[in-house]
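*** Residues and shapes ***
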Amino acid sequence: MRTEAAVLYEMGAAAPFARSRPLRIETVELAAPGPGEVLVELAAAGLCHSDLSVIDGSRPRVMPMVMGHEAAGIVREIGPGTTGLAVGDHVVFSFVPVCGHCLPCATGRAALCENGARANVAGTLLSGATRFSTCGGERLHHHLGVSAFSRFTVAAAESLVPIPADLPLETAALFGCAVMTGVGAVLNTARVQPGTSVAVFGLGGVGMAALLGARAAGAGPIVAVDVLAAKLALARQCGATDVVDASACDAVAAIRDLTRGGAETSIECVGHERALVQAYEATRRGGTTITVGLPHPDRRFSVPAVSLVAEERTVKGSYMGSCVPRRDIPRFLEMHRAGNLPVELLASGTLPLEAINEGFDRLAAGTAVRQIVRL
């Protein structure tokens, strides 16, 4: 079949993207689902910094590629031998296809699935296959096994989580990355306890979701850090008890003052090593610094080595919120239904596929948290 999709042929285009237009909206070929795969009609897809970091070249990927990784849709066709899904199922995508039998999967660490990671780096589905191509026959790669910026996509069954059909798909899409990553970092990776202090650096979709997760966990105080006034205002709605404008003051000193010595848990959601150092410096003795952002692979950070021992400090990475998608997405959805995760606060509006380059300009400028492409 043929479908419309946003294709990235080269990384590193100059901003503004509305002018350079790195994402080309094209009619492409989409092959039928193979064994263990399904055809999904996309309904909604979020614009995320993980997409932007591929577009601007700070997170290199194999090209050309159909972009997008945070999405929800409806199953339209089942490939041979596929179980656990049916035509008509509403689904949220997981950007790591969880194979279920490698060592990380077998030990409950599905976010680190070795076979899923290998496929994602190669730009293929879990089987190693690709299903997109140009109308001229050129192979197109999959972004994180999802390729959400397309009217239709083919994905491995392991990339899909069935959800209740009465949940709006524009809301459901947020659970595929922003909620899973941000809330998961709080509840799974950091295991934040009621009454403990939390600081969140960087208030994109993931950072805002981390605030929602901290509030749901009963944390306090909850300090939000950014440089944009509009985001700091929204942070209060998402659960921050205090906000710090890092462009106007010493953020580390401010957090240490607000938390009486430093946050017990600091969560870095910027994707820059300087922000990670700040998050570490804002963490109290015996505390934990969680890093969620994805800096360029060449970047390094340093901290006083003695502090790890003398202050019993922990630095811990959190990928995909340390989630098991088929366990945690339904769990977070139930928290949302109960009113404990008002994820609608993250939505900054909708846009058509044809306006996606302009949407990434807004994301890069920080004037939007989570824009949703209606497909």
